[in-house]
Each structure stands twice: as structure tokens, then as C-alpha cells.
Predict the structure.
Amino acid sequence: MSGGHVTELVIFIVLFAAVAVIGFWAARWRKPGDMMHLNEWGLGGRSFGTWITWFLVGGDLYTAYTFVAVPALVFGAGAMGFFAVPYTVVVYPLVFLVLIRLWSVSHRHGFVTPADFVRARFGSPTLALLVAITGIVATMPYIALQLVGIQAVLKTMGFGSHWPLVIAFLVLAAYTFQSGLRAPALIAFVKDLLIYAVIIVTVIYIPYKLGGFGHIFDAASKHFSSTTPPTGSIVLGANNQLNYATLAFGSALALFLYPHSVTGVLASKSRNVIKRNMSALPAYSFLLGLIALLGFMAIAAGTTPIGKDGNTIVPRLFDQMFPSWFAGIAFAAVGIGALVPAAIMSIAAANLFTRNIWREYIKKDASPRHEAWVSKIVSLLVKFGALLFIVFLNPQFSIDLQLIGGVIILQTLPSVALGLLTRWFHRWALVVGWAAGMAIGMWMLYTIPNPKTGHLHFGGSAFALSKLGFDTDWTIYTGFVAVIVNLLVAAIATLILKAAKAPDGADATKPDDYTADEGDPKVSEVPVAV
Amino acid sequence: MTEPESGGASGSDGTARETTSGDVPRRSDRSAWNWLLLLPIVIPLITPLFNRDHPRLGGIPMFYWLQIAFIILGVGGTTIVYQVGKRRKG
């Protein structure tokens, strides 16, 4: 058995090293202007075309954690884990309608982060600070989870210690520091070729070995009904359908509010690049649907996780079903798959800190060069923080935090997403709405226990409607309720503030900024209205 | 307010509508075709449509194959709206 692990490990290390070389070389790729500028380091020169954007955003949204956690959820609960598929179908039309306007207004004004936009749109540094802090706090555990993905693979190859993880992350930190967003963009090509190859082989080969899909689902169905109370089922039950739909919808809204998604979108060179990608990115959703089915295959194959770590299910399945050379490639695909989003997320979080905290409150006259330096340093710190999370705290803690992260990032929806469509909200009303959404979201999450892990609080995101006095056993996604409360409070507060004639911030953007395209004059070139 | 003609604008400009007041955008995100995008946003969220085991397709329960098929709905919607938008800009 250990002989097999040696083969796996050699292949894993070779591919990992190759990717590191690519990451360093990326600094010279596509002739960057001055690397010491956030437009270059943090957004790859805002010049990425359709193909690069497809790989970059794909690598950004479909993370290693997704590939590990979604099948693990299916393995544990069945149909509920499949919410990832409708979630990644729903998200693209939303981006097509809304986020495209963020690209335009950012192109014209030179915005780098969603908080930059909020500051200009509502004339409120306070609101921008809230958006920035929310973004950073929501992104940190997400980076930590990428490490959980790598960790699951390392565990399966027989590593009990943390040092390989530390090495992998130091290398990642070094080339992100040097190459900025170009590194994950280039590595995404390699990662995706590996992932697509591995998954296509997997969904043909494993069902063939297990006697077909029909048999796999029958085995899974039998397994779920043999547990009392049933832990899951192959279709949804009576009580979790509303939760399924609201979780898919809420996750889709959250996804494009995450700073790293915005970074991927802003790095593209024109509106058409984004629009074309909204039709092309669902190819990954198809892949994700197939990956989710690995959870059922693991049930049918009798795969067991290492200890109680459900995230090791997919690596264990590969280890069990494939010859060791192919398992090595599959492990490398997951491991490298973690590097791409971790790099983009750390860049996005660093940019938020630099633009909306450092430049806003600490060094108002920061030059572009100084900004780039700060971002580079902070991207290191953010990764280091994520590493400490995993090494010193229980990974389960990061998973819980990521759950909370989804709920809190949703609270920026009125300022960022609706702000792109309308200037109707009052700046202070948005602040009050944000606070209300946060408070109710936190309270709901706090009251959710998890019998499986023995958590009394923060055990999941499915909130029982009966707690709100409804006479039903249905559950609903916490983030969805929180954002509805946020919107209601913001709307009512806006009406009150407008009636009281409270001073509102000035809007620095103009209607036609939202439809600007490649080649349009930027704000420094736009003649000032007389 | 805004400049009617800007040098270096890319060829794919919006329909240059004659405007009386200066600050009407030259391009617009508005289009009746955008309503088409509601389909891929709403349909995948209606669980009663697909929450069944049978009919199976290649051994896969309807719950799974139909939701994977909804991906085509999303691709179709965004593609049509994009192409129509491009053509109208001529």
C-alpha cells in the first residue's frame, strides 16, 4: 500500500513543482507595464480576453474545496448536496444583468474593489469600510478552506503532519507576491486540463467498475434508508425543498459579491468578454454535477473516510479505485486546484485592505507604487493567517466560518448589487440595513445545532421556520432571511431619512458610466461637466 | 453633461439615439430580451419540477439529470441575449 503512495507522491510533487515554475514565470507573461501598480499586479493589466477569463474565473469559482466538499456533502446527506448545481446555473444570468455594470463603472473610474465603487456611488467612506471589512472577513476562512482541500489529499497519501502544507503555501505566497493575478491566471490552464481529464475518466471508469449508475443509486438509496433516523435520501424530503431553493439562490447572490469573483470580472478587457463567459462558464457547472455524483459512487463502493473527516471521501475513493499513477494525477489536480483560488482570494483581500482601509484612513496620498507594495505584503499576511487557522485550529472551525462568511457577504448586496442598478437608497439606511442583516443572520446561525458533530451553535445554515412561529417543519437558508431583513430595514430607513431631509452623499458616477466599454474614455480623460 | 462624441471609442457603440438632454446614456443595458434571463434564474429553483427518482436516464434519477439539463437553459438564455444585443448594436 505504501508503495502505491510513493508513486502518487512523486507524481504529485512533480506536477506541483511544474506549477510553481509557471507561477514565477507568469510575472513576465503578456508584457506587463509596470508591475508596481495595482492595475498590473492586482488585475493583470485589466487586459484578459475570453479564454484567459474563462480559465481564471472558472478556477476562481470552482475551488478545490468545492471539488472535495460537495461530494462529501452528497456522501453524507444525498440530494441536498446537489444544490451546488442549480446554484452555479442561476449565478450567470445574474452576473450578466448586474455585475457587467460594475465592470463598466470600474473601467471608467479605475475602481479595483467593490468597496471603491460603493464609496464613489454613495459618497460614504463609512459604508465603503463596512463593505471592505465584510469582504476581508468573508474571504479569510474561504482561503483556509482551500488548505482543507489540499490537506484532505495529503492525509490520504499518508501524511499526518502539517509541513508539506506549509511548504506548498510558502511557494504559493512567493509567486503570488512576484506575479500577482497573472500567476493564478496562467496556472488555471494547467489545473483545468488536469481536472477535466480526471473527472471525465472518473465518471466513465468508476460506474463501469461498480456496475452502472442504476446500481450506484440503488445502493445509495438502500444505505440512506438503513440508518435511523435517515441521514439523507436520493431525492429531497418534504421539509428541505425551500431550504434547497433558497440555499441555491442565496449562494448564487453571495458568489458574485465575493471580492475574488469581482477581481476575476474586473481583470477582463471588455464587456463582451464577460458576456461570452456567462455562456461558457456553465461548462464547469456540468463538471460540478458529475463531481457531486462521486459522493454516491463512494457510498456504492463502500468507501470510508479517514477518521471522521468527510472531506477525505473523494481522495479515498480515487485511492481505492484507480491505479496509483492516476490517483497521483487526480490528487495533484485537487491540490493545484486549491492554489488558484487561494491566490486570487488573497489578492482580492489585499486590494480591499490597501484601497479602502490603508489609503482611506492611514495614508491618503499613497502613490500607485506604494499601494502595490502594501497589497503585496498584505497578500502574504492573509495567506499566513489562513495557514495559522488550519495548523492551530480545528479545520471544522474554518468550515463553520465559511458558512458564516456566505451569510455576511450577502449583507453587502443592497450596497453593491442594488447600488449598481439604483441610487435610491440613502447611505445611512444602507449602514443600518447592513447592521440589521448581520445581527439577525448571526442570531439565526447561533441557534442552529448540529447533532452529527455535537455542535450546539453554528452547526449549519438551515433554519427551522418553526423558530419564527410558523407552524411547519420546513427549513430555510439563513442568509436568504438575513438579506431580506437587511433590504426591508434599508428601504424603511431610506423613506424615514428622506422625509427628514438627512444629508445624503454625493454620487460621483454618471448614468452612462454603467454602460462604458473598452476604448471609452476613462474618468481622467472625461471632460468635466460645466 | 456628457460628451456626445468621444475619440477612440470602440466600434461597437450603442445605437446613437438623438437626445435632447445631454445626459442620456449612449448605450443602454435595457432590453426586452433580458426577461429571457429570468427563466434560468427561476426554473432551477422550483423543486417540484424535478424532485423525483423516476424516470431515470442511464440509471441516473430524474432529480439529477434534469438539473444538469438546466445548465443548457442557462447557456441558451445568456447566449441568445448576448447575440441579440450584439446584432442590435450592428
Remarks:
- The mean pLDDT of chain B is 75.
- Residues 32-89 of chain B form one domain.
